[in-house]
Automatic annotation (TrEMBL):
Keyword Amino-acid biosynthesis: yes
Function: The alpha subunit is responsible for the aldol cleavage of indoleglycerol phosphate to indole and glyceraldehyde 3-phosphate.
UniProt keyword list: Amino-acid biosynthesis, Aromatic amino acid biosynthesis, Lyase, Tryptophan biosynthesis
Reaction equations catalysed: (1S,2R)-1-C-(indol-3-yl)glycerol 3-phosphate + L-serine = D-glyceraldehyde 3-phosphate + L-tryptophan + H2O
Gene (name only): trpA
Lineage top rank: taxon: Bacteria
Protein's UniProt name: Tryptophan synthase alpha chain
Catalytic residues, chain numbering: E49, D60
Keyword Amino-acid biosynthesis found: yes
EC nos: 4.2.1.20
Record SUPFAM superfamilies: Ribulose-phoshate binding barrel
C-alpha cells in the first residue's frame, strides 16, 4: 500500500472522515510552508494539498489568488517547493499532494518534473486543467515514480463521465461541490447531497468533497455523503489570522461524524 492508501485506510478503519487541508506554498515564505505542514499533521489531517503559485489560476477564487500572488512575490517556484518538500519528507509521514496547473509543469519539463516530485516524496498530483482525454502525456511518468493522479469530477459532469473518471481513479476522487471557483460559500446547490451519494456509490476509491467548505457544520454535512472533505480558502484565512485553534476544530469535525 502506498502512503495515500494507508492514510485513507487508517481513517476509515477508525470510522472517521478524511480531512485534507489545502495551503499555498510560499505564502509567508517557504519556512512557513514547513511549519504549516508540521502543524497540520499534528492536528490530525489525513493528507495535505500543497498549491503551487501561478499567475493565471483559472479555478481559483479571490482568497487563493491573493495567496498565490503573495507567494510569487516571495519568489516561490515549483523547484523551490519541491526542495522544501524533500527536506521535510524525513520528518513528515502524511501523504503530500501537489496542486498545480499544467503550465508550470510544461515549463519544468514533464519527465523532469515527475521525477523530481517522486524523489522529493510527493504522493499525488492534482492538475485541474488536465482533462482525462489528455492525461496520457503524464501518466507513464507518474507510474514509474508511483505518484498518483488525483482526478476531479464536477456537478456538471455527466453520469457516464463520472463513472469513467471514478473507474480510472487513484488515491481519491475529488468531487467539486460548486459550479465556479474556489472560495467560501454560505450555501450549496440543493443537489450536492445526491451528487456526492451517487459518486460514493460509483467510486471504487474514497470520494472527498471540496470547494466552498469553511465551517465544522459544513464539514459534518458533506461528510455524511462521502468519505471526507478538502478545505482551502478557510484554512488560508485562519493561518493569516493566526487562529490555529479554529483550524484544529475544523479538522476535528471530520473525526466525529458517524454514519
Ligand atoms: O478554497 P476552497 O473553496 O476550500 O476549495 C478547495 C481548494 O482550495 C483546493 O483544493 C484547490 C485550490 N485550487 C484548486 C484548483 C482546482 C481544484 C482544487 C483546488
Amino acid at each position: 500500500m502506498n502512503r495515500l492508501e494507508k492514510a485513507f485506510k487508517r481513517t476509515m478503519d477508525r470510522n472517521e472522515k478524511a480531512f485534507v487541508p489545502y495551503i499555498m506554498a510560499g505564502d509567508g515564505g517557504l519556512n512557513q510552508l514547513k511549519e504549516q505542514i508540521i502543524f497540520l499533521e499534528a492536528c490530525g489531517a489525513t493528507a495535505i494539498e500543497i498549491g503551487i503559485p501561478f499567475s493565471d489560476p483559472v479555478a481559483d477564487g479571490p482568497t487563493i489568488q491573493a495567496a498565490g500572488l503573495r507567494a510569487l512575490a516571495e519568489g516561490t517556484t515549483l523547484r523551490s517547493v519541491l526542495s522544501t518538500i524533500q527536506e521535510l519528507r524525513p520528518i513528515v509521514s502524511l501523504p503530500l499532494i501537489i496542486m498545480t496547473y499544467m503550465n508550470p509543469i510544461y515549463a519544468f519539463g514533464i519527465p523532469a518534473f515527475v521525477q523530481a516530485a517522486g524523489r522529493a516524496g510527493v504522493d499525488g498530483l492534482i492538475i485541474p486543467d488536465l482533462p482525462i482525454e489528455e492525461e496520457e502525456i503524464i501518466i507513464p511518468y507518474l507510474d514509474v515514480e508511483e505518484v498518483e493522479l488525483i482526478r476531479l469530477v464536477t456537478l456538471t459532469s455527466s453520469r457516464e463521465r463520472m463513472k469513467e473518471i471514478a473507474q480510472r481513479g487513484r488515491g481519491f476522487l475529488y468531487a467539486v461541490t460548486v459550479t465556479g471557483t474556489t472560495g467560501i460559500r454560505a450555501e450549496f446547490h440543493e443537489q450536492v447531497g445526491e451528487y456526492l451519494k451517487t459518486l460514493h456509490h460509483l467510486s471504487p476509491i474514497p470520494v472527498l468533497a471540496g470547494f466552498g467548505i469553511s465551517s465544522p457544520e459544513q464539514v459534518k454535512e458533506m461528510g455524511q455523503y462521502c468519505d471526507g472533505v478538502v478545505v482551502g480558502s478557510k484554512i488560508i484565512e485562519l493561518f493569516r489570522e493566526n487562529k490555529r485553534d479554529e483550524i484544529e476544530k475544523l479538522i476535528k469535525a471530520a473525526k466525529i461524524i458517524s454514519i
